[in-house]
Amino acid sequence: MKYLLAAALLLLPSFVLPSLARAEFDTGNDVWNLCTDNAAGHNYMCVGMTTAYFDMMLATGYQCVSPAADRGQVRDVVLKYLSDNPGMRNLPASQLAMTSLTTAFQCARPVCPPTSTQPRSGKPKLKGASPVVLTPNPNPRP
Predict the structure, then answer these.
(1) Which of 42, 107, 108 has the alpha carbon at shortest distance from 75?
(2) What is the dihedral of CA 80, 92, 4, 13, to 10 degrees?
(3) For residue 78, what pLDDT is reported?
(4) What is the DSSP annotation of 5-53?
């Protein structure tokens, strides 16, 4: 029930308040205000938001020395970075969270696979495969 309430509170501003189009959803100021205002339910949203940034990093291939950090540690790392760098809070929250988490947990960025220098043809070559022929069903169901 707590998570449902937190999700509803998180989505409420997007339906109630008109917003300008921008590339990021939240800035560091948004996260800082959410995490420090002591409003009911905001701690759950703060923990969830900061943990989601770390989960996203791990899911996209970041390799961290300490990937087993608990949610509270992740939140604390992001909040300490925001506290220590108030002049940067206008930047996207995702960028600030990734910077703080990469430093604190000694994460290495994912390595992109090497790309081929040979041009690719439009169709893959399948050895021994014949084309698939589609035929209409003579007895279609009504």
Answers:
(1) 42
(2) 120
(3) 97
(4) HHHHHHHHHHHHS-----S-S-BHHHHHHHHHS--TTHHHHHHHHHHHH
105 C-beta neighbours (distance < 10 Å), count: 20
β-bridge mates for residue 92, sequence order: 27
- Tally Cβ neighbours within 10 Å of residue 113: 6
Structure tokens at 100: 């703080």
Ramachandran area for residue 106 (φ above 0: left; ψ -120 to 50: alpha; else beta): left
Q: What is the pTM of this model?
A: 0.63
- Does the domain at residues 2-14+27-108 carry the CATH identifier 2.60.120? no
| Alpha carbon distance 96, 70 (integer Å) | 19
Q: Answer for the pair 106, 59: CB distance below 8 angstroms, yes or no.
A: no
DSSP string, 63-102: EES-TT--HHHHHHHHHHHHHH-GGGTTSBHHHHHHHHHH
What does the pLDDT look like over 96-108, one tens digit per residue?
A: 999 999 999 999 9
In the 8-state DSSP scheme, what is residue 131?
P
Cα 93 from Cα 28, distance rounded (Å): 4
